[in-house]
From TrEMBL:
<protein>
    <recommendedName>
        <fullName>Asparagine synthetase [glutamine-hydrolyzing]</fullName>
        <ecNumber>6.3.5.4</ecNumber>
    </recommendedName>
</protein>
<feature type="site" description="Important for beta-aspartyl-AMP intermediate formation">
    <location>
        <position position="343"/>
    </location>
</feature>
<dbReference type="InterPro" id="IPR017932">
    <property type="entry name" value="GATase_2_dom"/>
</dbReference>
<dbReference type="GO" id="GO:0005829">
    <property type="term" value="C:cytosol"/>
</dbReference>
<keyword id="KW-0436">Ligase</keyword>
<dbReference type="GO" id="GO:0004066">
    <property type="term" value="F:asparagine synthase (glutamine-hydrolyzing) activity"/>
</dbReference>
<dbReference type="InterPro" id="IPR050795">
    <property type="entry name" value="Asn_Synthetase"/>
</dbReference>
<keyword id="KW-0547">Nucleotide-binding</keyword>
<feature type="binding site">
    <location>
        <position position="267"/>
    </location>
    <ligand>
        <name>ATP</name>
    </ligand>
</feature>
<keyword id="KW-0067">ATP-binding</keyword>
<dbReference type="GO" id="GO:0006529">
    <property type="term" value="P:asparagine biosynthetic process"/>
</dbReference>
<keyword id="KW-0315">Glutamine amidotransferase</keyword>
<keyword id="KW-0061">Asparagine biosynthesis</keyword>
<dbReference type="InterPro" id="IPR014729">
    <property type="entry name" value="Rossmann-like_a/b/a_fold"/>
</dbReference>
<feature type="binding site">
    <location>
        <position position="231"/>
    </location>
    <ligand>
        <name>ATP</name>
    </ligand>
</feature>
<dbReference type="Pfam" id="PF00733">
    <property type="entry name" value="Asn_synthase"/>
</dbReference>
<dbReference type="GO" id="GO:0006950">
    <property type="term" value="P:response to stress"/>
</dbReference>
Length: 583
């Protein structure tokens, strides 16, 4: 992922201001180590730190239209850029970059072109003819973006908090699926899919339609001019991504450039569930598999760097970001610049274990809608920033706009978890790829129980984090927590520990307001905690907090602060048609 920074209408066109913008842009250099660009038009500045994935030789930014009256700095990938170029045949393009279409689309369609883009993106477009500008973020918020306002009336845009937090009076997360127009002076939602209203859909489940939609989502993301691979945890989602990629890679432009054998990557503590399952899937698919190990102490040592880069104090996100952060560094050291990952499936299909307790199909569906809308604050933020910290790009096919429309139109009755009928979590996705004649995955992998990433890398990881926090946060500190941190008051020593680090890097009130709060069990929303009265006493984001569901669940009687380590020697498996056993 690239890094973008823009300062618009700051009433200061001095050299000192230009130097300050350059200085702030360098804070994003980890995101785009391949090239830096800065464009100034009066008191408007557009800066860019490039990670070159498409057209590395000539796609440097900012990008322009033919007469350079329209200027764009963009972070993202436009998967349908070749189709869009055909619609703009009378335009002359300066580069082969997929993002080069944006300035020309604006010329043709004005601000209404954004929904034509199929991809992930954050961009700032400056029309120098009238000094107006447009800012937009992709549908789900896969790319990170923030907006701030200065006392001088300026508007600031940055891919990360650290690009604007010291210079703005107020700043906030830029809402996904929205654009901000200087002409109207406000936000407008450009992404308006049918599911957004949370109305209950009724389209009958068709496994082949779902399968084709996801295969299309994966294959369009094979667009690359640089070496790439897949993140493979051995769970259902990443394994399906790897299987489809391996199946369709041959014959693509990427295969001609870099070879048809797929590289896969996994991280975990020695002997963790994910490492074992990932190795089995990699052997089955014939990938060149890279297994990275880390220790609990390695992860603890990286926590401060993780919080600085991920820019959150959310417990779940930090737990999962740390191994991903460590793995991304290793992947980049191998010369790989892009990976395909499995984020988003659990939100779309109700894959988190707490969905076992959904009271009915209506509430099941509404919870999936709530989860998708919040992804930019959690898994998208983690996947984007943990990889971008090392100049690596993550692509997430489950969050493809077309695929989401197909998956969220299914009657949620088909997604409901019904153990007596052999339907475990994400049954509709598993069934769609349960092909006896041309199997995508081994049956027991296809029906493996959900493991949250922070659990699957090794259960002692979370237990080690809790123990470390307990050594640094006293009972007295917790007693006074509501006075020190009145907003999103930490309720555990682990949360307090992360909050202290976050506040040191980002002390502004606006910064702490960018992080969500509220009760959660096994990654649920606060609303879903109401589904089971027992959860109110076990508010922990680990999947093991889903009492009575997870095969290695916490016991209900022991307080969370006293839970022992539970490192298991065998991975939880699901033998078809969905009866949970320990292998």
């Amino acid at each position: 992922m690239c890094g973008i920074l823009a300062v618009l209408g700051c009433s200061d066109d001095s050299q000192a201001k230009r130097v300050r913008v350059l200085e702030l842009s360098r804070r994003l250099k980890h995101r785009g180590p391949d090239w830096s660009g800065l464009y100034q038009h009066g008191d408007c500045y557009l800066a860019h730190q490039r990670l070159a994935i498409i057209d590395p030789a000539s796609g440097d930014q900012p990008l322009f239209n033919e007469d350079k009256s329209i200027v764009v700095t963009v972070n993202g990938e436009i998967y349908n850029h070749e189709e869009l170029r055909k619609k703009l045949a009378h335009h002359k393009f300066r580069t082969g970059s997929d993002c080069d279409v944006i300035a020309h689309l604006y010329e043709e369609y004005g601000e209404d072109f954004v929904d034509m883009l199929d991809g992930i993106f954050s961009f700032v477009l400056l029309d120098t003819r009238d000094n107006s500008f447009v800012v937009a973020r992709d549908a789900i918020g896969v790319t990170s973006l923030y907006i701030g306002w200065g006392l001088d009336g300026s508007v600031w845009i940055s891919s990360e908090l650290k690009g604007l937090n010291d210079d703005c009076e107020h700043f906030e997360s830029f809402p996904p699926g929205h654009l901000y127009s200087s002409k109207s002076g406000g936000f407008r939602r450009w992404y308006n899919p049918p599911w957004f209203s949370e109305a209950i859909p009724s389209v009958p489940y068709d496994p082949l339609v779902l399968r084709r939609a996801f295969e299309n989502a994966v294959t369009k993301r094979l667009m690359t001019d640089v070496p790439f691979g897949v993140l493979l945890s051995g769970g259902l989602d990443s394994s399906l991504v790897a299987s489809i990629t391996a199946r369709y890679l041959a014959g693509t432009k990427a295969a001609k450039q870099w070879g048809a054998q797929l590289h896969s990557f996994c991280v975990g503590l020695e002997g963790s569930p994910d490492l074992k399952a990932a190795k089995e899937v990699a052997d089955y698919l014939g990938t060149v598999h890279h297994e990275f190990h880390f220790t609990v102490q390695d992860g603890i040592d990286a926590i401060e760097d993780v919080i600085y880069h991920i820019e959150t104090y959310d417990v779940t996100t930090i737990r999962a970001s740390t191994p991903m952060f460590l793995m991304s560094r290793k992947i980049k050291s191998l010369g790989v610049k892009m990976v395909i990952s499995g984020e988003g499936s659990d939100e779309i299909f109700g894959g988190y274990l707490y969905f076992h307790k959904a009271p009915d199909k209506d509430e099941f569906h509404r919870e999936t809608c709530r989860k998708i809308k919040a992804l930019h604050q959690y898994d998208c933020l983690r996947a984007n920033k943990a990889t971008s910290a090392w100049g690596l790009e993550a692509r997430v096919p489950f969050l493809d706009k077309e695929f989401i429309n197909v998956a969220m139109s299914i009657d949620p009755e088909a997604k409901m978890i019904k153990k007596d009928e052999g339907r475990i979590e994400k049954w509709v996705l598993r069934r769609a790829f349960d092909d006896e004649e041309h199997p995508y995955l081994p049956k027991h992998i296809l029906y493996r129980q959900k493991e949250q990433f922070s659990d699957g890398v090794g259960y002692s990881w979370i237990d080690g984090l809790k123990a470390h926090a307990a050594r640094h946060v006293t009972d007295k500190m917790m007693f006074n927590a509501s006075f020190i941190f009145p907003h999103n008051t930490p309720t555990t020593k682990e949360a307090y520990y992360y909050r202290m680090i976050f506040e040191r890097f980002f002390p502004q009130n606006s910064a702490r307001l960018t992080v969500p709060g509220g009760a959660s069990v096994a990654c649920s929303t606060a609303k879903a905690v109401e589904w089971d009265a027992a959860w109110k006493n076990n508010l922990d984001p680990s999947g093991r907090a889903a009492l009575g569901v997870h095969l290695s669940a916490y016991d209900a009687e022991t307080p969370l602060s006293n839970k022992p380590s539970k490192v298991i020697d065998s991975i939880p498996r699901m033998d078809f048609p969905g009866v949970a056993i320990q292998s």
